[in-house]
DNA sequence: CTAGAGGCCTGCCCGC
DNA sequence: TGCGGGCAGGCCTCTA
């Protein structure tokens, strides 16, 4: 799926089309995605869209009568299309606007979600999330406090949404490479300078990816249908057996916590 | 409490 | 060319 940069890219892409528009209809063509699509979503029909926000990898479409909460799962994507364009396979939800356009949600694997919240951020899927990585709340002091005495390996730690949101499998490997930290290091064993470096690199990698329109591996596209261009900047993800772009050592690959993880043994030594 | 595995789905790629 | 197996950007839930 879309990680945080891909979700933010989608938000930036749909916002100018949605803001201020009235929702004429919400068409649902599947019984359920990750969860059943709630009937209450229809309360947004006739409402004017006030704002489009992002929290973690969730998009929030706010109206005076409640908020639609959208998650793209592993394979979801959003497009702005003319309302006359017929749906294709896996087009599960349309948000029909009053300007002849619609927001169309496509998701082959159906791991995504469309939910309804009467009070935006109060929905249960949002209340236990950690800080946003691109805010000042996510800083070295915070992360060091959370990491203290923990044995979990750093790769899994930064992918834990209760610690920090939005760092998915691609950007976890990339951030650790940029910070020269081995993904298997127990997080409590990192020193202050490594924690500081990690925080900086997570922010930098995510911000750079947003500027490039996200990472297109195969099925992510921006709202206008174009791919994201961060894939060209990946240093380790998906590069197992290839030469490190910095030192020419071979990139390693191993499953950590059931997720493929990539690193350079020379640039990211395991030194405990 | 935590860690680890299973599960949700479809499409695609690989090897036979 | 066809088919089975394994794998994929997420994350919730169950078990030990």
- The gross shape turns out to be elongated
How does the helix and strand content classify structurally? alpha+beta
The largest pleated sheet is described as: 4 strands, antiparallel
Radius of gyration (Å): 20 Å
Tell me roughly what share of residues is in helical segments: 10-25%
List the strand order in the largest sheet. Answer: 1-6-7-5
Write the H/E string, N to C.
HEEEEEEEEHHHHHEE
Tally of separate helices: 6
Average pLDDT, rounded to a whole number, is 95
- How much strand content do the residues show? 15-25%
Overall description:
The chain is an alpha+beta fold and 272 residues long. Helices cover 23% and strands 22% of the residues. The strands form 3 sheets. It has a 4-stranded antiparallel β-sheet with strand order 1-6-7-5, covered by helices on one side. The protein has a 4-stranded antiparallel β-sheet with strand order 2-3-4-8, with helices on one face. 40% of the residues are buried. The chain binds a DNA duplex (16 and 16 nucleotides) through helix 5.
Write the SSE topology:
Layout: H1 4-18, E1 23-28, E2 51-55, E3 58-63, E4 66-71, E5 77-82, E6 91-97, E7 101-106, E8 113-117, H2 124-127, H3 140-147, H4 154-158, H5 169-178, H6 192-211, E9 251-256, E10 259-264
Antiparallel strand pairs: 1-6, 2-3, 3-4, 4-8, 5-7, 6-7, 9-10
Helix pairs in contact: 1-6, 3-6, 5-6
The chain binds a DNA duplex (16 and 16 nucleotides) through α5.
Key traits:
272 residues, four-stranded antiparallel beta sheet, 6 helices, 22% strand, DNA-binding
């Amino acid at each position: 799926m879309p990680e945080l940069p891909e979700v933010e890219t989608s938000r930036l892409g749909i916002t100018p089309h949605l803001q201020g528009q009235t929702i004429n209809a919400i068409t649902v063509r599947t019984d359920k995605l990750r969860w059943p699509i709630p009937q209450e979503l229809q309360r947004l029909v006739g409402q004017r869209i006030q704002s489009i926000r992002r929290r973690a990898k969730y998009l929030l479409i706010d109206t005076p009568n409640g908020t639609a909460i959208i998650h793209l799962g592993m394979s979801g994507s959003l497009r702005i299309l003319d309302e006359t364009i017929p749906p294709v396979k896996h087009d599960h939800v349309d948000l029909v606007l009053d300007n002849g356009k619609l927001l169309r949600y496509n998701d082959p694997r159906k791991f995504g979600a469309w939910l309804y919240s009467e009070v935006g951020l109060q929905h249960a899927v949002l209340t236990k999330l950690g800080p946003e990585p691109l805010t000042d709340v996510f800083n070295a002091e915070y992360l060091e406090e959370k990491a203290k005495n923990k044995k979990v390996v750093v790769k899994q730690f930064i992918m834990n949404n209760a610690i920090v949101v939005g760092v998915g499998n691609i950007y976890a490997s990339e951030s650790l490479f940029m910070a020269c930290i081995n993904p298997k290091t127990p997080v409590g064993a990192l020193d202050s300078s490594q924690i500081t470096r990690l925080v900086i690199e997570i922010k930098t990698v995510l911000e750079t990816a947003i500027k490039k329109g996200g990472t297109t591996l195969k099925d992510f596209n921006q709202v206008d249908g174009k791919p994201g261009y961060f894939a060209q900047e990946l240093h380790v993800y998906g590069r197992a057996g290839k030469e490190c772009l910095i030192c020419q050592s071979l990139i390693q690959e191993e499953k950590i916590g059931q997720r493929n993880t990539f690193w350079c043994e020379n640039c990211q030594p395991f030194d405990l």
